[in-house]
């Protein structure tokens, strides 16, 4: 089985040139000018198009029992939506509740993906409690090929851990060379402020961001950074939304703390006024940390451009507007948190980042693919276009013009947070390990083609 992509403009994190790419079996075997097609090869003409390494979403939820309900996608719909949008690898948060057994949960999450996912996948293992049994199980999970943990400083009683558990998790991570990804918000402040708002009759979706303002997130980052400094563990702040939180991460980095920063496509493009929309429309835009004041968008774009922010994810967590978001119609604390965007991350980042002049093409590839692969022990198998790398490629048509709509999306959710938004450019062909899986916005691959990616820890 071979695939030849001809005459595309190859763009990686640090290079840009026109060449042909030959893929044999699952890998890239040759990059050169004028490669003659081997007998039986599938040939794709990429003239006038970019060829990017497959994009990696470092933070998604596919199987997510949460806030009394469950996210709507499964690995069939979720992986297909990812591929249509150019994302060829998913890193999912494996999020057991505190009551669940850690190893059994890891196996449950694997069962959700294996045989269903059309794109490659791995997990950040959620550490939602830490005792002797958990520690032994985490060692076993790392032995099975997981090299990153996830902890929550928010959601006490569900996923959140206390400071003793945080300290022990970071100590173990340091010993094992595992990087610890973290949701940083101060839970006590959220709880107290939410109670005050509800008692004052402030129950609508626009109150959600009032209950967790920027300082709540900044305190969470500061807290994590103190523990990271004392343990020496490598850390990664997920879904960072605002200047105050970024300042804390940068200050810690200047002290020598090892910290990566992820922002989301939602924070780069949407602001808190969306969550304030009337008639419960704002519920579509409720997530945590919340959408912020618009001034933060420039700070995040600049952070990406200057290397202060390493990655752009989606935190994909789809809950239906008609049947699930209304759980919080009279109490914003009960609105299932999440803004679906797995399918649109790359198109939005290209249109509102590259085309708008906020980041260049290399930064675009770096923050949505290469840097993710490097941080999470997937490079150069993923995130690169070079002989030996997996043949995960995105042939991208910069001349496409379109409009986002729930009517045409692959994600299994009943609304789009970006309904009516214009898109300039989209993937025209997407491959996973040499197989064409998407063409012009349509999934054409096979469920179950995706592989679990075993990773070796490197953050010693
Ligand atoms: O609102 C969000 N972010 N939902 C998903 C769960 C999480 O905190 O990542
Ligand atoms: Zn989170
Ligand atoms: Zn998340």
Describe what you observe in this structure.
- By secondary structure, the chain is an alpha/beta fold.
- The protein has a single domain (54-375), classed as Metal-dependent hydrolases (TIM Barrel), CATH 3.20.20.140.
- The protein is built from twelve helices and 19 strands.
- Strands 1, 2, 3, 4, 5, 16, 17, 18 and 19 form a nine-stranded mixed beta sheet that branches. An eight-stranded parallel beta sheet has the order 6-9-10-11-12-13-14-15.
- α7 runs parallel beside α8.
- The model has no long low-confidence stretch (mean pLDDT 98).
- Bound molecules: N-(aminocarbonyl)-beta-alanine and zinc ion (2 copies).
- One zinc ion (ZN) is lined by residues 59, 61, 93, 315.
CATH architecture: Alpha-Beta Barrel
Quickly count the helices. 12
Content of β-strand: 15-25%
Largest sheet: 9 strands, mixed
Overall geometry: globular
What is the average of the pLDDT values? 98
Percent range for helical residues? 25-40%
- How does the helix and strand content classify structurally? alpha/beta
Which stretches are low in confidence, meaning pLDDT under 50 for 5 or more residues running?
Answer: none
Give the total of beta strands: 19
Looking at the structure, the CATH topology is TIM Barrel
Radius of gyration: 21 Å
Level-1 CATH class name: Alpha Beta
Question: What small molecules does this complex bind?
Answer: N-(aminocarbonyl)-beta-alanine, zinc ion
Q: CA-to-CA gap between the ends?
A: 39 Å
CATH fourth-tier homologous superfamily = Metal-dependent hydrolases
Number of domains: 1
């Amino acid at each position: 089985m071979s695939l030849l992509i001809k005459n595309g403009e190859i763009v990686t994190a640090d290079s840009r040139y026109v060449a042909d790419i030959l893929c044999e079996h699952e890998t890239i075997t040759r990059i050169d000018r004028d490669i003659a097609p081997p007998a039986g090869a599938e040939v794709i003409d990429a003239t006038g198009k970019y060829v990017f390494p497959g994009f990696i979403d470092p933070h998604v939820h596919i199987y997510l029992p949460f806030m009394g309900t469950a996210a709507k996608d499964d690995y069939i719909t979720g992986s297909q939506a990812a591929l249509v949008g150019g994302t060829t690898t998913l890193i999912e948060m494996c999020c057991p509740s505190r009551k669940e057994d850690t190893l059994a949960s890891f196996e449950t999450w694997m069962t959700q993906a294996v045989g269903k996912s059309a794109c490659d996948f791995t997990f950040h293992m959620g550490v939602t409690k830490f005792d002797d049994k958990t520690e032994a199980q985490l060692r076993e999970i790392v032995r099975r090929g997981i090299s990153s943990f996830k902890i929550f400083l928010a959601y006490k009683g569900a996923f959140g851990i206390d400071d003793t558990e945080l300290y022990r998790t970071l100590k173990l991570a340091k010993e094992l060379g595992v990087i610890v990804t973290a949701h940083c918000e101060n839970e006590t402040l959220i709880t107290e402020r939410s109670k005050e708002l509800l008692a004052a009759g402030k129950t609508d979706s626009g109150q959600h961001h009032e209950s967790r303002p920027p300082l709540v997130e900044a305190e969470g980052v500061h807290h994590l950074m103190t523990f990271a400094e004392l343990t020496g563990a490598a850390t990664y702040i997920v879904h960072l939304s605002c200047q105050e939180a970024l300042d804390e991460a940068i200050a810690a980095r200047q002290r020598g703390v090892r910290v990566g920063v992820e922002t989301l496509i939602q924070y780069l493009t949407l602001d808190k006024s969306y969550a304030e929309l009337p008639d419960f429309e704002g519920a579509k835009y409720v997530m945590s940390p919340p959408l912020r004041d618009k001034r933060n968008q420039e700070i995040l774009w600049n952070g990406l451009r200057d290397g202060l922010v390493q990655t752009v994810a989606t935190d994909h967590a789809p809950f239906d507007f008609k049947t699930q978001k209304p759980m919080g119609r009279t109490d914003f604390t009960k609105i299932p948190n999440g803004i679906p965007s797995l399918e649109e991350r790359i198109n939005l980042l290209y249109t509102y980042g590259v085309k708008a002049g906020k980041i260049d093409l290399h930064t675009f590839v770096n923050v949505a693919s290469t840097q993710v692969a490097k941080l999470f022990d997937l490079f150069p198998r993923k995130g690169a276009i070079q002989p030996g790398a997996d043949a995960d490629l995105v042939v991208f048509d910069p001349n496409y013009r379109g409009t986002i709509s729930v009517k045409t999306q692959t994600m299994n959710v009943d609304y789009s947070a970006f309904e009516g938004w214009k898109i300039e450019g989209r993937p025209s062909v997407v491959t996973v390990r040499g197989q064409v899986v998407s063409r012009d916005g349509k999934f054409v691959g096979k469920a179950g083609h995706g592989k679990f990616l075993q990773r070796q820890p490197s953050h010693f």
